[in-house]
Design goal:
Elements: H1 3-38, H2 41-49, H3 55-78, H4 83-105, H5 108-121, E1 129-132, E2 135-142, E3 146-150, E4 156-160, H6 161-166, E5 169-172
Antiparallel strand pairs: 1-2, 1-5, 2-3, 3-4
Helix pairs in contact: 1-3
Length: 173
């Protein structure tokens, strides 16, 4: 068989794989999103964490991109690209995802741990009047990552829980 025809056939097959993978990825995203929405995952996490987390969209998007990456790998394999290139590409994608995840969690983890400490110690409860640095107010709510103070002017001040554990604060009676 002519090498040019063989290359054209490989390109056509790789394009077909990418097209089918794109369609399957979109279908998986919609199905996973609909299923997680029926389970009310966002509402459940909003109640648990006290913050708005778009977990349904995050997980359905991750499922879609997993299908896309698998499709890309199959298409590259169809074109005869060596495994070392595929592994290098996959390794660099995973490295960038891991770095992004760690950077995203950099502030969340200390605040969440501090929120658990505040909850366990019970040093601050809703309704307490506290002063942190030069900010004074009544504790409106305490979530996993932040404490909301309401000042005398009815302003809401959001204080990260890590700051409450790390900083000196005064509880008024």
């Amino acid at each position: 068989m002519n090498p040019l025809y063989q290359l054209a056939a490989q390109l056509l097959m790789a394009f077909a794989v990418l097209l089918i993978g794109g369609i399957i990825g979109k279908l998986v995203e919609k199905t996973v999103g609909r299923t997680l929405h029926e389970l009310e995952l966002n509402i459940l996490f909003r109640r648990m964490l006290g913050t708005k987390v778009m977990l349904e969209e995050l997980l359905s998007g991750a499922a879609k991109w997993l299908i896309y990456v698998m499709t890309l790998l199959i298409a590259l394999k169809q074109l005869g690209i060596e495994n070392i290139v595929l592994y290098t590409l996959l390794g660099s994608i995973l490295l960038f995802c891991l770095i992004g995840l760690l950077l995203g969690l950099r502030d969340f983890i200390p605040n969440a741990v501090s929120g658990l400490l505040l909850y366990k110690r019970g040093t601050i409860t809703e309704g307490d009047i506290i002063k942190v640095k030069d900010i004074e107010g009544r504790v409106k709510s305490i979530t996993l990552v932040q404490t909301i103070l309401e000042t005398k002017n009815k302003d809401s001040i959001y204080i990260p829980n890590a700051a409450l554990v790390r900083e000196f604060w005064k509880k008024k009676k």
